[in-house]
Amino acid sequence: MQHPDDRELLYLFKQSDHREKAFTGIIKKYQEKLYWHVRRLVVDHDDANDVLQNVFIKVWNALDNFREDSQLYTWLYRIATNESLTFLEQQKKRSAVSLSDVESGLSNKVIADKHFDANKLEWKLQLGIQQLPEKQRVVFTLRYYDEMPYEEMSRVLDTSEGALKASYHHAVKKIEEFIKNH
Amino acid sequence: MDRNIDIQNELEEISAFVAGLPSQHPYQVDASYWDTLAAGVAAQIHLQTAGNVTYSAPPGYFSNLAETILSRVTHADPASANEPEHLVLPGSSIMPYEVPAQYFEQLSNSITSRITRQAQQAPVVQMKPKIRQMAAYAAAAAVAAIMVAGAFLFTDNSESYSSLKDLDVSGSVARLSEAEIESYLNSQPASLSPVKEEESSDMQAPLRNMSEDEIQQYLQENNDPAEQPVKGI
Q1: Taking 60 as the threshold, does the pLDDT of residue B202 lie above it?
Q2: From the UniProt record, which GO molecular function terms apply (chain A) (predicted)?
Q3: Mean pLDDT value across chain A
Q4: A114 or B91: whose pLDDT is higher?
Q5: In angstroms, how far is CA B28 from the centroid of its own chain?
Q6: Which architecture characterizes domain A98-182 according to CATH?
């Protein structure tokens, strides 16, 4: 499906008559990419849906102030990442458990998925990803699944490219070790 | 789906094992989800916007409000002519309350006179300078006493004790001549002299009256096994 250009969508959004139509266009264009990014971080579909709805509500409220010198795509990923991490942080506080318990909670969510198959490598990889520290988890999924260039990732996560490369390197090594030992 | 060649090469450099893993994640979602998401978000936004305003006014209410009020004020109903004069209309700066006549003219005088009266009722008594001086001396003496007591209690006196410990008494006595020791003992009071012969002999008197068998029997009865003589001694 062919989606309108970002500039065109932003221009339409600023016209009060086309505001809602333009916003629906933005949702349609980015919903799948953002959903899978959020889903890989929070694992559960219902949680991903809640987070994604909050992301688009924030986008609606803040789009008037969006500076067009940065890409809409990068800006949306930034909001989606922050919203996902905030969601995980809130879950941690609500259950009053340590970070490692939240990670094991995410692993349990992976296992609880109705399509989970412990013998399949793609599921083992998901379990390996959930063992990673938060930052490495985000960097790994953005690079491995979204194939995001380090330059863009640097703008999304506000981190230097060197630090991102190091995080990705550590994440890959840890995942290799995890899968070989499980 | 093939992975981007740069990302694949980077992965193979880090770990050939991970580079060989599937590039697709295993999660799934209903295809209908994508059709309903935008509508769901729009509904949320409308709910949020609706939640901000609880009550609503008829269209054009606020733009006509000022004119409506002014027209009511200027074309007042003759029936309301009998209302009290001090009834205040909205926006008027006239206060509806009244104060007694000459209240503000007399206010400053009444406050001054109240202050003067209060000052006369409760005179401040100054302490005499001599008594104040003595009290200061007493306080200084008390502070000095506390400091001296504190210094005495908390100063380390272990130095004088250690100097006593270092004294070599037996060495000093050994260096004395017999004549010096004798003259020192003679000069000391009688209470320090050794036990007299008569007193010590009194202790042996009951033993003299006992037979050897009785003594042996006493020793056997009061024998403590722990005090058995060591063999060979």
Answers
A1: no
A2: DNA binding; sigma factor activity
A3: 91
A4: A114
A5: 57
A6: Orthogonal Bundle (1.10)
pLDDT > 70: percent of chain B: 58
- Pick the more confident residue, B135 or B54: B135
- Supply the DSSP symbol for A131: T
Cross-chain residue pair A122–B21, CB shorter than 8 Å: yes
Per-residue model confidence as pLDDT tens digits over A45-83: 999 999 999 999 999 999 988 887 779 999 999 999 999
Domain boundaries, chain A: 1-96, 98-182
Q: Which two three-digit tokens encode residue A32?
A: 């799948």
Give pLDDT, residue A155.
Answer: 94
User: Looking at beta carbons, which residues of chain B come within 8 Å of A33?
Assistant: none
CB burial of residue B97 (10 Å; 0-12, 13-18, 19+): exposed
Using a CB-CB distance cutoff of 8 angstroms, which residues of chain A are in contact with residue B18?
172, 175-176, 179
CA distance B162 to B158: 6
* Cβ atoms within 10 Å, residue B221: 7
Count of other CB atoms within 10 angstroms of residue A126: 22
Query: What's the fold here for domain A1-96?
Result: Rna Polymerase Sigma Factor; Chain: A (1.10.1740)
Residue B108 CA: distances (Å) to CA of B97, B105, B112, B118: 21, 7, 6, 16
Q: What is the mean pLDDT of residues B116-127?
A: 67
Distance CA B173, CA B176 (A): 5
Q: Which residue has the tokens 């318990």?
A: A101
- A1-96 and A98-182, same CATH topology: no
The DSSP code for B230 is P
Cross-chain residue pair A24–B42, CB shorter than 8 Å: yes
DSSP-derived secondary structure for A66-82: --TTS-HHHHHHHHHHH
Which residue is associated with the tokens 């003219």?
B105
Quote the CA–CA distance of A24 and A41 in Å, as a whole number: 24
**A60, A111, A113, A136: which to substitute to probe chain B, counting the most B Cβ within 10 Å?**
A60
- Predicted pLDDT of residue B232: 39
ipTM above 0.90, yes or no: no
User: Tokens standing for B188?
Assistant: 């000391």
